[in-house]
């Protein structure tokens, strides 16, 4: 299926590994030129060298307030247009609520929420000019509370609300804004959780994976490429009537309406 993305330009934050890397690979495979942001310049360079089309490597810490505007400006200088923003960057600290510090909370919001907000604000005029779109990568923790994921759940919930609010504005301005909520996806973060669970319970990692999928009531973990395919579709003209959608891709883990 031709997603009609060839020749378009996108920004992907958190692109150096995991879901962000898979998104970059998929979008480049569809013919897009990309600006790639993450803190690791070396990993971004390696990714860029593997992509099918031209890309801009922009290593930076998205928690710094000035970075989003600089990123957007660099993208426009390099490619002359902007059609898509994928807000993917951001990890939050897990743990018991009473062991999490104010700094942990501030850091969680600084990267994932404020980074996405500032990138959206900086990119908006150029997305508006070309009828572009934003895809926010949030997470199912924003829809279901969990005692050991208080920061992540709160951040994701805020990002989902921001998605709806910007989609409302986007109806007027001609910018589509949607979000994807990944479930348990096979990334280094999930592998670390499996190693931790295996060590705590004195079991093999394969058994830890079985325990975790049973607890989540899903058949398996997801793959980064499955999230990437959804991003490419939402970014494409084929999804032109999808606005303000919050798409759960979690193998059925979220059972709420």
Can you walk through the features of this model?
The structure is a single chain. By secondary structure, the protein is an alpha/beta fold. It folds into two domains: 9-185 and 225-248, 3-Layer(aba) Sandwich (Rossmann fold); 186-221, no CATH class. It is built from eight helices and seven strands. Helix 5 links the parallel strand 5 and strand 6. Helix 6 crosses helix 7. The longest helix is centred in the middle third of the chain and has 29 residues, at 102-130. It starts with 8 loop residues before the first strand and ends in an 8-residue tail after the last strand. The mean pLDDT is 95.
Q: Which residues sit in consecutive blocks of at least 5 with pLDDT less than 50?
A: none
Question: Per CATH, what is the topology of the largest domain?
Answer: Rossmann fold
Secondary-structure-derived class: alpha/beta
Order of helices and strands: EHEHEHEHEHEHHHE
Tally of contiguous helical segments: 8
Cα distance spanning the termini:
31 Å
CATH architecture of the largest domain: 3-Layer(aba) Sandwich
Q: Please state roughly what percent of the residues sit in beta strands, choosing from under 5%, 5-15%, 15-25%, 25-35%, 35-45% or over 45%.
A: 5-15%
The average pLDDT score comes to 95
| Widest sheet: strand ordering | 3-2-1-4-5-6-7
Q: What can be said about the biggest beta sheet?
A: 7 strands, parallel
